[in-house]
Prior knowledge:
CATH superfamily of the largest domain in chain A: PSTPO5379-like
Number of helices of chain A: 6
Number of domains of chain A: 2
Distance between the termini of chain A: 34 Å
Mean pLDDT of chain A: 93
Largest sheet of chain A: 7 strands, antiparallel
CATH class of the largest domain in chain A: Alpha Beta
Shape of chain A: globular
Oligomer: homodimer
Order of helices and strands of chain A: HEHEEEEHHEEHEEHEE
CATH topology of the largest domain in chain A: PSTPO5379-like
CATH architecture of the largest domain in chain A: 3-Layer(aba) Sandwich
Structural class of chain A: alpha+beta
Helix content of chain A: 10-25%
Radius of gyration of chain A: 18 Å
Largest interface: A-B, 27 and 27 residues
Amino acid sequence: MNTQSQIDAATIRADIRAGAHTGHTAGLAPGKLQCNLAILPERYALDFLRFCQRNPKPCPVVGVSETGDPMMPTLGRNIDIRTDVPKYRVFRDGGLFSEVTDISDLWSDDLVTVALGCSFTFENALQRYGIPVRHLDDNVLVPMFRTNIPLVPAGPFHGHMVVTMRPIPEAMVSRAHEISGRYPQAHGAPIATGDPAALGIQDLGQPDYGDPVEVRDGEVPVYWACGVTPQNVLLDAQLPICITHSPGHMLISDVAEDAETPIYHP
Amino acid sequence: MNTQSQIDAATIRADIRAGAHTGHTAGLAPGKLQCNLAILPERYALDFLRFCQRNPKPCPVVGVSETGDPMMPTLGRNIDIRTDVPKYRVFRDGGLFSEVTDISDLWSDDLVTVALGCSFTFENALQRYGIPVRHLDDNVLVPMFRTNIPLVPAGPFHGHMVVTMRPIPEAMVSRAHEISGRYPQAHGAPIATGDPAALGIQDLGQPDYGDPVEVRDGEVPVYWACGVTPQNVLLDAQLPICITHSPGHMLISDVAEDAETPIYHP
Lengths: 266, 266
């Protein structure tokens, strides 16, 4: 059966470019790195890269474009960042301006694209090793929480870490730690386990973003750094313009999830 | 016995700052990340960070300073990059200008420091696991070779990879691969094994830099990406000014070699 998850990354990107796929990308092109996006004016790019280098768990950089060039040759063949993501969010001066499926008319010569790894990668790996991922089994969004964990600042970029929470059976926690730790380009190992209050989270039943999931007897809440972190930080920095993907609507790259080095298709 | 290798990083940096230690740093402050340095004008920093992101094996970024700020708070307490490295090389317009032990008089408001991981980290790990490291046993410099492996370009930065070679007993090669692979911030796993001609290396007995070492019966030449790569690339880019450490004379950080996240001492 030729299910959509078996269609290759290039074909899915072509569908997205043609406007034939505007939905989320979870489960598509398994084995390929999917990416969070931050598109911003060049004059902020050096500080943003410094910020990502200083906060690698929430902000694992997997690709950086040339200034003004919409192509991303280190992430795959013929990737045009203006059209090849199913849905974008456009922010102006720190406010949400619009949600669109194409940013060609917003592109300008001073924009730089930064691609960041996303949690789809280690979730696939957890499932492959038989570790249940509750929000996937429940078919809801992963619950996300603002924490009291300060980020290392750089220029206008600062704030606190956002985390995702996945309930893991107690006996599988160290295995989940080990497996996700193999993917430093996708948030890596958890940043904490157990008591939500230690992270400044008041109620696991009321996530700041996404959907709540049940933590059952014998399960431990496990927290990973989340790609919403840089989105919030960019928003707070009130850049004149900043474009991100819409949550769950990722750039699908040609890079293998477990690649140690990038690719290059000039 | 209080040998020098047991003295902590901060004490060694204080000695270096005072001019009491101008030698190499191999074996000092074991367990702490040592760093290659590239100090360059801000207008080249974004391209250089792009270059490093695209070539993470030879150029693993472990710290980036604020523009014009000589302190490196993400690498340790009270690190002043102008004085805390035993020896520096100053390049102007692509030529070696001078070798000095202090760059205070060269510092300016537009300089950015990029710190890159170095092979000392995985060499220590190999030895801890009983894998011999020939050049350390022979007390010579590691042999380094220019290769035909192209780097992914960014702005003015381009060229070919330089590798180090260590002869490893055949039965230990996969173990050496696994151990060094745990340190992506220090060049990670080898980039190749075996036939030097496949990398464009003509004679293992005649390294381009460093000293030759014997490859004995039953041993395989194993190649790792080398921190000389970015030095050559910077030299070829003919920047008006660029400052690096002198080979073997590294910045000793307070960061644990196996740290997954940076530190911060504002």
